[in-house]
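Shift notes (night). Ran Peptidyl-prolyl cis-trans isomerase while the centrifuge was going.
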Amino acid sequence: MAEETVKAPNLYVEMDTTAGNIVLELNEAAAPVTVANFKNYVDDGYYDGLIFHRVIDGFMVQGGGFDSDMNQKGTKAPIQIESNNGLKNVRGSVAMARTMDPNSATSQFFINTQNNTFLDYPGQDGYGYTVFGKVVSGMDVVDKMEKVKTGDRGMHGDVPVEPIMIESMKFVEKPE
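Came back to this:
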């Protein structure tokens, strides 16, 4: 007789931002390495005080790497890509940002504001981008963030003129 496996409940993260409250559901079963990495950053308080530094209307909002002065915060080692996990870059999904190197994701993440199928595995580069969760509450906040005025700050484009700060992130019980 086969043993039954009990699926672990998904993790929920409450992200308080200066634009409002967002709750993320993390899919540990589909992206265990990515969720463990994100969980370590949340547990360490790493994201507290960082901003959403890249906002592109009709695409996504990205954060988790810079403070309000656009100083990049140090990170842990990059993780292995898990983009071939069946999860899609659809509206409200949360994915890891990375460089051209598919195994370069560290702390930065983005929330898709549209269906961005070109980012799905295998993507345009044979890898795509790892989706590891979704917004379960606060998509109205993300929609508001997507529409803010942006400009250039140093070498960075698409930076909100008025910073959108992550005030805190913490794990919470499953929202009702």
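Helices lie at 32-43, 139-146. The radius of gyration is 16 Å.
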